[in-house]
Amino acid sequence: MLIAGFPAGAFQTNCYVVAPAAGEECVIVDPGQDATEGVEELLREHRLKPVAVLLTHGHLDHVWSVAPVCGARDVPAWIHPDDRHLLSDPAAGLSETSASLFGGLTLSEPDDVRELSDGAVLPLAGLELVVDHTPGHTRGSVSFRLPDDEIMFSGDLLFAGSIGRTDLPGGDYPTILRSLAAKCLPLPDDTVVLPGHGPQTTIGRERATNAYLKEAAPHAGPTRGI
C-alpha cells in the first residue's frame, strides 16, 4: 500500500494520494487550496495514474483544486449529494466572516461528478474503499475506509485529540456525536486515522484520550427503526 500526502494551502488541509503500490493507478483525496502542484509532484515521484478524486466533504479548503485536478487528468470527482452544491457555491458552507472574504471566489464542478452513498464500496485503482456517511461537520460529510488495511480517511470528522467544528452551515453537534458513535467507535483500535488536518492517529488512541469520543460513547447503543 502506498499513501502519500501533504498539507495544502493556507488551511493546511491534508491531501492524499492512495495506490496499491508505486507505478500503479491511484485515487486522490481532498485536493484543497493550491494542491495542484503538490499532487502532480506526488504523481511523478511515484509514477501514479489517478482514476478518481474523492471528497470527504464540500468545504472550500477540501475542494478548492478539485476542478483543475480532475480536468488535468480527465477523472471524475466523487462527493455526497448533500454537499454537491458546495462545489459551485463554496460560500454556502462558510461563516459570514469567511463568506465576505471568499464570496467573490468562483469555483465550478468538474465535468464528471459522481455521488456517494452510505455503505457503498468503491472499486477504484485496485482498491476497495468503503464509504461511511458521517454528517455533523457538514450534511454530506463522509469518511473512506480500507477495511483490510485498517485505514480510515476521516476528513473533518475526527482529528488527533479533537473533532470537526459544527458551527458552520450544515453543521450539528449532536449529529457529529452520532456519526462518531456509529462509524468510529466500532472500529478496531489499530485502525489508522488519516484526518483532514493535523497528524495521523489511531482509533485506539482517540478512544482512550479524545474527550469527544468519550462523549459520543453513550450514543453507540442499539437504535430502533422508525
Automatic annotation (TrEMBL):
Q: What cofactor is this protein dependent on?
A: Zn(2+)
- Name listed for the protein in its UniProt record: Glyoxylase-like metal-dependent hydrolase (Beta-lactamase superfamily II)
Checking InterPro entries in the record gives:
MBL_Glyoxalase_II, Metallo-B-lactamas, RibonucZ/Hydroxyglut_hydro
Please give the start and end residues of each transmembrane region: none
Q: Where is the Metallo-beta-lactamase domain?
A: 12-197
- The organism encoding this protein is Nonomuraea fuscirosea
Molecular-function annotations in GO: hydrolase activity; metal ion binding
At the top level, the lineage of the source is: Bacteria
Q: Which keywords accompany this UniProt record?
A: Hydrolase, Metal-binding, Zinc
**Lineage start:** Bacteria, Bacillati, Actinomycetota, Actinomycetes, Streptosporangiales
Q: Which SUPFAM superfamilies match?
A: Metallo-hydrolase/oxidoreductase
The UniProt record lists the keyword Metal-binding: yes
